[in-house]
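Protein folding task:
====================
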Amino acid sequence: MKKLGMAINKRYKKIGLVAGIVLLAGGGLAFNDDLFQISKNLDVFASVYKEVNINYVDDINSAKLVKTGVDAMLDGLDPYTEFVPESEIEDYKMHYVSTQYGGIGSSIFARNGKVYVSDVFSGFPAQKADIHPGDQILKINDIDLTGKNNDQVSLLLKGSKGAPIKLLLKRDNTPQSFEKNLIRDEIKQPNVSYFGMVDGNMGYIKLDKFLENSAAEVTNALVTLKKSNPNGIILDLRSNGGGILQEAVKIVNLFVQKDVEVVSQKGKIKDKNFTYSTVNTPLEPNLPLVVLVNSHSASASEIVAGSLQDLDRAIIIGQRSYGKGLVQQTFNLPYNSLVKITIAKYYVPSGRCIQALDYTHRKDDGSVVKVADSLIHEFKTKNGRSVFDGSGIYPDIFIKQEKFANVTQALVGKLLIFDYATVYRDAHAKIAEPKEFSLSDADYGDFVKYLAGKNYSYTTTAEKVLSSLKTEATKEKQFNDIQSEYDILKSKLLTSKKNDLQQHKAEIKQVLENEIASRYYFERGRYETNFKYDKELAQAVKTMQDKAQLASILKGEGNYKVIGKPVLAMTGKKTSDKDSDDDQ
């Protein structure tokens, strides 16, 4: 029996060895096949490019041809995987790495073939030279700007630090054009565009992006705010599209103890898997903390909001975030070009990935759908609150986002708000401090008079519905039967429309005050004037002042035990208003 067993063992070992050799051979064949396919496809691509370049009937831009081909190849993956040719490297760095360049510190826009200053940034050459928003730029270094677009003009404004630049300008209330001679300075747009104290003695920090030094800027803001002994901190990440992941980790570390996991990334290649944890003693681990988010808060913003929510360190207020849970890495290519590739998905401390769109499983037509509710999973925060993956970061307190009325959008879009602010600035040497500034009824009356004869036509939703009704009734040959009622409704809508300037006076005043205040106090003016209208900010202050509610949310008591439960996971229960208001 012993010999038989030994024989059987030897036999199975031999079979196992043969199987192993076959598997290895199979793996080698698969690897070689992959290499062959890559080589084959590259050869085909190069051959097509060569033949087209040689034989096409017209001259072609070969660089553009290659970029079009590469872009088409990457288009089927996700919108974050992209090729950046040498000609676009500087723009890429400005967008993803650091907004630093030589210039005068202003932004511009083109209208009807003319170029105007739209904003001036405090402390830079344009502001020091008393250049105003609304000024028309006629020439830059004697180059006529007529017919030039934004990119062409921006290129002329930018240059090396210390280089002179001459502008020929025209101002509405000045009969003659005038020259300004400036010296370009290093323009570094801050990541933290504003910080200060708001109602309730709360510290407020507005972070616009996660580029180089964003964590250092938030740290400096927090250190300054702490000198005022704040009762809480509000970190505003609304419309922050993200940026550098490591900066997000550092910012979380300001509020969370050392050696705590913040985010992990997991991809196909094990070497790309990594867990990021806090490494320093926090600057402010105890003060009440609120993070504001909206549907445009993405990527690094969601890492900060999601990790602070998972760790039960902060209250999240606003709307559901965008849902970008993908990590990109750049790889250098020949001739100073590069490719940015999605290499992993990131996961916040509870283990959830907040990616909302499923790029891997597209429809037959190539369109992308959201992760199905049936595939969404439940996770637990540190204190046991239920949170869910696959759909962004859902706020602890949801605030429905209000949309401006059609008339307000028309006034902004037609630049009538901008133009009136220019007129107002020319007529008023100074205004009150931004937090106190408010347009009087007489001021608003002047604005209404200013609009007389101006074109700000717009179509209301009701008018669109009525027009659709006419179209469908005409198709079905029923319009004659309802025309009298149709005409009455149309007349009533027109009468109501004439009252829109009064009906929507509050929100029109809001955007007017915002634009006017920026003419005197720049970016600070925009923020501080708008504070009194900011519902999310008001809710943040109210929540941190209510210690009982603050504790209930973080402990997950009552309605706060489950955050953003998917519709299909409701097990027959009626969807709450909180869920139905989402994604408005």
